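User: Please predict the structure of the protein below. I'd like the answer in structure-token form so I can feed it into my own downstream comparison script.

Assistant: Understood. Taking the following sequence of 319 residues as input:
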Amino acid sequence: MALVETVRGPVDVSTLGTTLMHEHVFVLSEEVRQNYPGDWNDTDRVDNAIEKLTVLAGRGCQTIVDPTVMGLGRDIARIRRVADGIGLNIIVATGLYTYNEVPLYFKYRVAGGGNPDPMVGLFVGDITEGIAGTGVKAAFLKCAIDDQGLTPGVERVMRAVGRAHAETGAPVTVHTHPSTGTGRDVVRVLSEEGVDLTRVVLGHSGDSTDLDYLTEMADAGCLLGMDRFGLDLITSFEDRVGTVAALCERGYAGSLVLSHDASCYIDWFPEAVIPMFAPKWNYEHIFDDVLPALRERGVTQEQLDTMLIENPRRYFAGS
């Protein structure tokens, strides 16, 4: 029996069911929110999140995987309040989100004299002991690389994530920028750190329609995050669905996971603007629109179950 940590405690991976592999509950600029809260009401936001995730559970989703880490406003105590009010599992992460430099807190706390990077110890502690005294343990690691490429800060975080994986066995999710091929940097760096690439999701791979690049990354062993359904301004609905269907036709259903990269609340944009530029960017889009469209394009129920159930299960269970 393989167990995976959720916000409410460990569960058998066989019970995860239909799993969305990249969804946030909250994405917050936490320091701004604390100093300039505006109309933020914590109780109302938690209640709203419970409502939205209850609707998602009603669509048949049983688990969401939330890669909100430092840099995205992670607050596990708040997430615990949400999890206690819903019927689905929330799996949380440790790591650090930056496209460029590390936060100043870490800049001058550098490894030296044979000592490990202090980030490694923090990440490992989140996995083995729990996060911020909540008792909630992270079940996977998260880092990022965007179109700035492999900057020294990005590489430092990625290597710290790789070393934490080597110490704990926790799987890894990486925000990538597929149009500039940053998955190749991820494969190289994490391989150098001894990471099992079959336990790595290359997030946002679905932003690309380049089948040669995508199959190259899948052949390296990685799972491809087709995980921004609803963000049609980046890549259209037709292209996202068509790319998944084409990869399934080529036999790559075992390399794909599905999601939206949505949230109950994200403060990066004025709240009223999101329905204008991304009206389908919500938790139900896959169930209401994407799965029917994939079936129309010849994707079988077995392949859908592979992407939504079997691949997430394997990612957390390992070999």
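That's the full token string. The two ends are 12 Å apart (CA to CA).
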